[in-house]
Design brief:
Layout (H helix, E strand, L loop, with lengths): L5 H45 L7 H45 L4 H39 L6
Length: about 150
């Protein structure tokens, strides 16, 4: 087995740049989702502290906590899928380099990693959109309970 020359390695590095950029972008998405998740957890803890002394508002607080808990599960799924996308992009990069270094035909493996990476990212974004919709629904419920009559 002949080692790769620098001239042979440069196209592999150029090909690997795309997944590296993808990792960076998904990392920013993960930052956004985890910040959102953290805010939801903080809000749930605050409401949970108020629950024992809520009195007449107990049902409203319980309803809000139920919505927050569902949203936290949805965001956890989005975080999981985004993380899986990053891990698959990493496997894609590793498989590209190993295929080049070991002179293997790994088109199927590379294609599979890429497809799964993109599918995981798309699923994560869909789940994130579901959380946004749940957030708007929760806001509407809370505003209605407060007596606000919007559109």
């Amino acid at each position: 087995m002949n080692p790769l020359t620098l001239q042979q390695l440069i196209p592999v590095i150029q090909t690997a740049v795309g997944p590296v950029i993808l990792i960076s972008g998904v990392g920013l998405l993960l930052l956004s989702i985890t910040n959102r998740f953290g805010r939801i957890v903080d809000r749930a803890r605050l409401l949970a502290r108020e629950l024992p002394v809520a009195g007449a508002n107990r049902d409203q607080l319980s309803a809000q906590l139920a919505i927050i808990y569902r949203r936290s599960k949805v965001l956890r799924l989005s975080i999981f899928l985004s993380t899986a996308s990053v891990l698959l992009a990493g496997l894609l990069i590793i498989s590209l380099f190993l295929a080049a270094l070991l002179h293997l035909e790994a088109a199927l493996l590379v294609s599979l990693c890429f497809i799964l990476c993109m599918a995981s990212l798309v699923a994560s974004l869909i789940v994130f959109l579901i959380d946004l919709q749940m957030s708007l629904t929760a806001l509407r419920v809370e505003l209605t309970q407060a007596g606000f009559q919007g559109d």
